[in-house]
UniProtKB/TrEMBL annotation:
GO terms for molecular function: 2,4-dienoyl-CoA reductase (NADPH) activity. The keyword NADP applies. Keywords: NADP, Oxidoreductase. Residues 211-224 have a biased composition (Basic and acidic residues). This is 2,4-dienoyl-CoA reductase [(3E)-enoyl-CoA-producing]. GO terms for biological process: fatty acid catabolic process. It comes from the Eukaryota. Gene3D superfamilies: NAD(P)-binding Rossmann-like Domain. The lineage of its organism: Eukaryota, Fungi, Dikarya, Basidiomycota, Agaricomycotina. CDD domains: TER_DECR_SDR_a.
């Protein structure tokens, strides 16, 4: 019998978790000005946390911070810093501590991507993505760790699923995200005794994001193909990643650290019979 067509629902974390679970907590999120990290920040703020969003474009950050504060009723400050610049990150941490007094949660989300075949990828192009994704994660952890230890807080690193196999034109991002996954595991075991957790969220195809647009030009039918072949019957939504974020930061995940959670609707397990 043919399976019934079923599309997994998209829900809000506030329908599942209590509204005030993060009251008094503070989030430091790199890449929070837009896309997936903005959605992750919004969800954490909806549960009562204040947030600092960090990025390179202060105009966009300022607008996002205003919108997030209005939408959630929690506080949000925009802080300009490039994750490749440790000094700027330390200044961003200082500004966050001066404003909110603590840091409980960190999202290492700043990332860069474009499609390029390895044969023509320049050294500088490869290095640039490694510097943003991998070194940027390392720099963010170094800048925040003292405060996260103090609050017995938690890290979430935003990775990807594309490095589980050989994804064409993604040598730079595959290498960078594999390293991020490895870094998180080390943080989990080194920092566990200090009460700090570290986990990875690996988004699959998430609709309406810059990453998805960069990887699948709107002119072709790739996005529609992702939707029709996904085992869950749809593309991912930013809310799917946001919900996983709320779970990982919540005490419901207090014995979960060093893990990688793909949020991909089962996409990575799909193998079409040949
Ligand atoms: C080949 C490229 C390129 C392209 C840039 N380069 N774009 N090479 N194809 N399309 C090369 C440049 O020629 C240069 O090398 C080097 O990369 C650095 O480029 P710059 O523009 O000088 O760097 P910078 O201004 O720092 O910009 C960084 C960037 C850019 C990554 C290149 O795209 C950016 O800022 N992106 C941020 C936003 C973003 O990418 N968001 C999507 C994230 S999604 P040469 O040799 O010429 O000097 C994501 C998810 C992944 O990461 C997983 C999804 C499933």
């Amino acid at each position: 019998m043919a399976p019934t067509s079923f599309v997994m629902p998209i829900v809000d974390s506030t329908a599942i978790f209590k509204a005030d679970i993060f009251k008094g907590k503070v989030l430091f999120c790199t890449g929070g000005g837009s896309g997936i990290c903005r959605g992750m920040t919004e969800a954490v703020m909806r549960h009562g946390a204040s947030a600092a969003i960090i990025g390179r474009k202060i105009d966009r950050l300022t607008q996002t911070a205003k919108e997030l504060a209005e939408a959630t009723g929690s506080k949000c400050i925009p802080v300009q810093a490039d994750v490749r610049d440790p000094k700027a990150l330390h200044a961003a941490v200082k500004q966050t501590i001066d404003t909110f007094g603590r840091i409980d949660f960190v999202i290492c989300g700043a990332a860069g991507n474009f499609l390029a075949p390895i044969a023509s990828l320049s050294e500088n192009a490869f290095r640039t993505v490694i510097e943003i994704d991998t070194l940027g994660t390392f720099n963010t952890v170094k800048a925040t760790i003292e405060h996260v230890r103090r609050s017995k807080g938690s890290y979430i690193h935003v990775s990807a699923t594309l490095h589980y196999k050989g994804t064409p034109y993604q040598a730079h991002v595959s290498a960078a995200k594999a390293a991020v996954d490895a870094l998180s595991a080390v943080i989990a075991v080194e920092e566990g005794p200090h009460g700090v957790r570290s986990n990875v969220i690996a988004p699959g195809p998430i609709g309406g994001t810059e990453g998805m647009d960069r990887l699948t030009p709107k002119s072709d039918d790739a996005q529609r193909r992702f939707q029709s072949t996904n085992p869950s019957g749809r593309m991912g939504d930013i809310k799917d990643v946001a919900n996983a974020t709320v779970f990982f930061f919540s005490d419901a995940a207090s014995f979960i650290t060093g893990q990688v959670l793909p949020v991909d609707g089962g996409n990575e397990h799909l193998r079409t019979p040949s």
